[in-house]
Amino acid sequence: MASPKVAVVGAGVIGLSTALCIMETCPSCSVTVLSDQFSPNTTSDVAAGMLIPHTYPDTPIHRQKQWFKDTFTYLFAISNSHEASEAGVHLVSGWQVFKSAPKEELPFWSDIVLGFRPMSEAELQKFPQHQFGQAFMTLKCDCPPYLLWLEKRLKAAGTQMYTRKVADLWELHSEYDIVVNCAGMGAHQLVGDKQLFPVRGQVLKVHAPWVKHFIRDGDGLTYIYPGIHRVTLGGTREKGSWSLSPDPGTTRDIFDRCCSLEPSLQGAQDMEVKVGLRPSRQGVRVQREVLSQGGVKLPVVHNYGHGAGGFSVHRGTANEAAHLVGECISALQGYSSRAKL
Amino acid sequence: MRVAVIGAGVIGLSSALCIHEQLHGLVPSLELEVYADRFTPHTTSDGAAGLWQPYLSDHGNLQETLWNKETFDYLLRHLHSPEAKEMGLFLISGYNLFTEPVPDPSWKNIVLGFRNLTPKELELFPGYSYGWFNTALMLEGRSYLPWLTNRLTQRGVKFFHKKVESFQELFSQGVDVVLNCSGMRAGDLQPDPELQPGRGQIIKVLAPWVKHFIITHNLKSGIYKSPYIIPGSEFTVLGGIYQHGNWSEENSAKDHKSIWDSCCRLLPALQEAKIVGDWSGLRPARPSVRLERESIRLGNLQAEVIHNYGHGGFGITIHWGCAMAAARLFGSILQEKKQLASPPGPRL
């Protein structure tokens, strides 16, 4: 197989980073990204892009930790390079605060982020309603810049990108040798995965350039994440809701909760309201599969179901998916050499 | 009781406000006036980035350390007030970088979350092997000075745009007490060889992805001669110039290049930052702050001057502690004047 033709379905952070990893590990591959949405209209564009992992109940912790570590290392290098501002990757420090003692004193990722330590009494005075806290520094990937930067690198490497709604993976079998499914929430329809469910998140993006720190309530519902130009205020976690329309009552509630954590937000300007559906699953599906129909085989690599943790583990899962694509190619080469006998 | 403040930088305006807040109730006849030839945005305080951070060592000057602490605590109490944004006040965290281990600074317990940098964090800064991380405050002069001016105006304080040539000039007009907050130009009012300019130059850039201050130190060269990057609410300040004895307020192309090259080496992404402009200012440097009373005899009258100048590169850092000390000095003047009540009459 001289030049394997790989189709990546999905152009959010998972699709683009997976396509890039495939290009990096398999320079002879011809990679095409197909998606009905590109930045700034993907789920990733709504997300703040903070590297604070979500814990997946069905994925072994060591695997999640490796994904996070790979992603953090990759982005840390970018943040330290001259490309940092174009890529939208930057360091941000801040606090995670708790009203009651956290379940885990040391989350699995505490030694990967920078400077993780409990907050001092003096620091906690800034949060009169909270009794415990953790201070650390992590990375943030601002979107659209990060996605646009990935697209630019893909184009430079020869990747084609097309706006196309793929309704069925089999549509692609005549044009492509391998299909990579990074369809996020779309995988529910595309591959009929009933274990995939939306967790609706509404966020506000405001202009408040004096806010230099992130603040997150340990319950995960209220957070303030300063980006390059806007601060993301959140949020909601509505399991099973498919609605993409902003809810005004929710907007008011998010704003009030964030102002009680950071009173200066009362002076924030230019509010934009956005909604995204976190493509949630008990475990991220990074897996090879060979679909079969009427004697025809279609190798598929799945990489979806990252829920609330897409940015945190994107590069790690993209690496794994690219590795699985490599296995698919070897298998195809095995078939074709057997076919020659 | 007429009180004239000379100088409308952070020292003059905050001293005026502190005195009015604390003593107006006790002295209903208090008339406060501010005289200056430069007002915001043209003062030295307007050009400063506004980061609260004292020098590395207080040289045993515990009084200044206390004033720094009083300022920090005062500002921290205002952080959650509705005024914070208008004051230009917000929390900021960041790094101090060294090429060798150094003792902890006098202010380590004043700021929040002071700690040493981890090896992984130091990877970000090749050439630096030791450092601190802490959370401090920004108080941007361009916002704080207008805020102080508004508070003073509300209180009926009058402002006069003129260059005062001598203390006598004000006393002959009937002023009872002068607060000398003239900063760099205090020498024009009364010679002070200890007061020297510490010229600084900065480049203002747009680099909104930078969320932390980064201050490098070269212990051999001295303070502010090593690159620093301080992100504000509108733009980021790049600096690293301290020229003792240089009175020039003109921007120097050589200094611009030195700042730009050294800051870009520190943070490569700055190469993509858009330059907004340069600014030069003179830090009113002195071995210690001059904060004291001076009685001047004018005929049969005793005129009082309270000096409050020489805050070098830490004016914003120390301003409120000094303002309160100046107010206490003013309080003692008031007490003495009551004891030595002079009948109202013609003045010299």
Distance between the ends of chain B: 16 Å
What is the string of SSEs of chain A from the N terminus onward?
EHEHHHEEHEHEEHEEEEEHEEEH
Helix content of chain B: 25-40%
CATH class of chain A: Alpha Beta
CATH topology assignment of the domain at 1-50 and 140-192 and 287-347 in chain B: Rossmann fold
Largest sheet of chain B: 9 strands, mixed
Q: Looking at this structure, what is the CATH superfamily of chain A?
A: NAD(P)-binding Rossmann-like Domain
Uncertain ranges of chain B: 340-345
User: In total, how many beta strands of chain A?
Assistant: 15
Quaternary state of this entry equals heterodimer
Q: Report how far the terminal alpha carbons of chain A are from each other.
A: 16 Å
Which strand-content bin applies to the residues of chain B?
25-35%
- Give, in order, the helices and strands of chain B: EHEHHHEEHEHEHEHEEEEEHEEEH
Shape of chain B: elongated
Helical proportion of chain A?
25-40%
Sheet/helix structural class of chain B: alpha/beta
The amount of beta strand of chain A, in percent, is: 25-35%
**CATH architectural type of the domain at 1-50 and 140-192 and 287-347 in chain B:** 3-Layer(aba) Sandwich
Q: What is the number of beta strands of chain B?
A: 15
Keywords (chain A): Cytoplasm, FAD, Flavoprotein, Oxidoreductase, Peroxisome, Signal
Subcellular location (chain A): Cytoplasm, Cytosol; Peroxisome matrix
Cofactor (chain A): FAD
Family (chain A): Belongs to the DAMOX/DASOX family.
